[in-house]
Specification:
mainly alpha
């Protein structure tokens, strides 16, 4: 019995040492500068309601305006959050909306609609930040913007 307790104490000490050492491996948590004229908010035809929904529920991972809560200073949460933000910005960055062609913008809005309809987005992040949850009205707002973009594309062709 004593050997089991000793092994458990040794294992606990190793786990604590690893967690402490992990705190020194800091991911890059930056918010690049944003030109407000390049954001989706500055894009003609985008409603303020859409911007409000995207800022609240999508902005932490899909913009240059990420809010880095206190727990993102603690490994391993810091690693997961930094990875998620980097991948999110690669997928779509609403802070650099004019960097996408009109066709890409339509595609990204349509994909956003599909992702929120399926529950893929905003994903498990809502456990930590419940205010990012999307209501059915929020989903309708995103999908209406996608439909409007598609309809406008048909008119201009």
């Amino acid at each position: 019995m004593r050997r089991k307790i000793d092994r458990l104490l040794q294992l606990s000490a190793v786990v604590v040492a690893v967690l402490i050492a992990a705190q020194f491996l800091r991911p890059n948590r930056t918010n690049p500068p944003t030109d407000v004229n390049r954001t989706i908010a500055a894009h003609a035809g985008v409603t303020s309601e859409l911007v409000r929904v995207l800022d609240r529920s999508c902005g932490d991972c899909h913009s240059n305006s990420t809010v880095w809560p206190w727990y993102t200073n603690i490994a391993p949460f810091s690693w997961f959050m930094a990875y998620g933000v980097n991948e999110g910005r690669k997928a779509v960055n609403f802070s650099d909306w004019v960097g996408y062609s009109p066709g890409q913008q339509r595609k990204l809005l349509t994909e956003s609609c599909h992702d929120v309809m399926s529950g893929k987005m905003p994903g498990p992040y809502t456990v930590l930040r419940p205010e990012t949850r999307l209501s059915s009205q929020d989903i309708d707002t995103i999908c209406a913007a996608a439909r409007k973009a598609e309809a406008n594309a048909g008119v201009s062709q």
